[in-house]
Amino acid sequence: MDRYLKRSTFTSQEDFQENFEFVMPDNFNFAYDIMDAWAEETPDRLALLWCNDKGIERRFTFADVKRESNKVASYLLSLGIGKGDFVMLIMKRRYQFWLTMLALHKIGAIAIPASFLLTKKDIVYRMNSACIKAIVCCGDEPVVTHVDEAYPECPTLQHRISIGPIVPDGWDDYKAGVAEAEEYKGGRCTQSSDYILMYFTSGTSGQPKMVVHDHTYPIGHIGTAAYWHDLHMGSLHLTVADTGWAKATWGKMYGQWIAGATLFVYDHEKFTPADILTKIGQYRITSFCAPPTIYRFMIREDLSKFDLSSLEHVTTAGEALNSAVYDKFLEVTGLEIKEGFGQTETTCLIATTPWMKTKPGSMGLPMPQYDIHLLKPDGTEAATGEQGEIALKVDEKKPVGLCCEYFLNPEATAKAWHDGYYYTGDLAYRDEDGYFWFVGRADDVIKSSGYRIGPFEVESALMTHPAVVECAITGVPDDIRGMIVKATIVLGKEWKDKAGDELAKELQDHVKKTTAPYKYPRIVEFVDELPKTHSGKIRRVEIRENDAKKQ
Predict the structure, then answer these.
(1) How confident is the model at residue 255 (pLDDT cuts 50, 70, 90)?
(2) pTM (2 decimals)?
């Protein structure tokens, strides 16, 4: 890590902000310059500790990772997959994901991680949008069935590769092919400016866009891992994320391995809070990162039954953290949850670092690799306490970690990059100490009776009530106020039989007491679950669309 920074050790947040600076190599390839380098320097050190919910465990040293990724690279080349080819990966949390990613980096192919929740329609859209040549899948149902259903409508798809256990007719057998392959002996064939990775955005509204990153992207995650996750040599880090979500490369690969940490991966089919908590104690995990939803379910367990004493540092991202969750976790563990914020298009943009005083509910301060501003609709800077859109200054050069473009979509690219800034589409405000506080997506802000109401501030108020597990705030058209606030709420199991007008009134009164009264939800709907994207983000747009149909 030290070779990519002018300085890697800092004594304070001020020191970090003023002196953090990358030293960019002329040509960088993560697989060679990080993973193979570790394999030469410390071959027997543990790189990946993988286990699953069936009791199987695998441990990979850095030497193992180098050898096995070279064999995968050789196998893929034997199928005719090479530099510039797009390869989709639907691999859940199987350990082969990491080996395949590194192999693709070595041969110059572009990886497209994707969710196992994709249907035929989703797969066809992605295949044809990116002219994907091959897909590597976990051989599970219904994944292989959806791929087979999509296959006739995907003219560029030449190879369907299964890692097992199911290898359908017409598919390539990954395990057999890799077992027979020789180690790849070729040299690097990429430049730093070549594409390394593509993600289809979550698509909270409209069709997903294609976000492409170049080979410098992993370096951008040094800040994510070393100064937000606070990782170092000897850390054992668990990020709870499926490999189809960008948070996997945020928290389960690039920055963590650059920092010299060991990755812990728990491969499970169904999320059970008690299982995650048990693994933390069983394997002595030192660093943990998960979205707020995971923490919400964890704190509803009896945490006194689990050994969390190995944890040194805990973080969260993916959506804004409600202070009620923060307070409860701190009470039972003594650990502050450090929030971070970023996008599929970026690395960690804003974070609460170890040097900072934590403000529950705040994202923290901008990471020093980015020049971040809060801009009003007229392009001027928002004042303290005033809402603005989070924007990155890009007039001189692209910051390390920011994506290259929206692939084959110049209109979307121009909409986000203009006037010297990249606009994130997320609204926030800045307090008197410079801390950023999330408001919501620009499209989600509710304008009611002249007020601008961010969903998160109302959701945060609701989340302090013990009945609420999850909630989403949306706007509903109203003839008098323009829009009124609606709360769609998932109740805890012990509250479900109390759903009704009386509880709705109690929750409305609770919001009035917790935040400004004009923000309270005038409509309350109780549901069993909230609509979400494949990456787990709440789809408020779907709630609005369903309400419009009802009206």
Answers:
(1) very high
(2) 0.87
